[in-house]
Design goal:
By secondary structure, this protein is an alpha+beta fold. It has helices at about 50-55, 80-90, 105-150, 155-170, 175-190; strands at about 5, 15-25, 25-35, 65-75, 90-100. It has 2 domains: about 5-130, no CATH class; about 150-204. The protein is built from 5 helices and 5 strands, in the order βββαβαβααα. The protein has a 5-stranded mixed β-sheet with strand order 1-5-2-3-4, sandwiched between helices. A hairpin with a 2-residue loop joins β2 and β3 (about 25-35). α3 (about 105-150) runs parallel beside α5 (about 175-190) and α4 runs antiparallel to α5 (about 175-190). The longest helix is centred in the middle third of the chain and has 46 residues, at about 105-150. It is elongated and about 80 Å long.
Amino acid sequence: MDLIFQKGSKECPKGHALLYFTNQDNPSEIWATYIITLPIEVDIKKYMPPFLVNDNNALNSSDFNSFAFPPSPELLGSLENVQDLAELRDEDLIEGGNIDINDSANNMMKINEILSQYLNLYLNNNSKNIEKIDEKESENSNVNSLMYEFMNVNDRMTELSKLLSKLLFAIENSQDSLILECEKDIVSLSSFYPQNHKINKIVE
């Protein structure tokens, strides 16, 4: 089944959402849980005592990429309360349909199914965003390469000096993204120097 977003969209999920259900015996009652997808992959075994790790060899980091809490929905009041809370916290708001509030096992199954769908939407959207970033970086690299091509020898030396200073700053301040950016620019610039200058060796 497709997820029903009352706030937010399946094209751009935030990675965190309020998931609500309606009590089938009392439609004025709204029950809810909170679902979240972690932006950072976690090796859960690193945070477990050794004796527990040995007993849980089958544990996988992907098992902790997302979770719902509470695992079974809790009474949250009216639909208006849920909508206001989602607006206040800037959450996605997903409608889960009707439930029997006394059937906890079935409700937890429903939550896990929706959580799995939400995680897949988030991961798919995230991979598209990464592709866009890669395309953007590629475009920027092409622009820089074109700029280097039209520089004279002195301008290239000046540019190389600037890049080396920026690279040193990035290394000293542990700015990984800036380090990668500088290294790419230096490699690109090195292609306009004779091979015996070995400029690209700077970043190897």
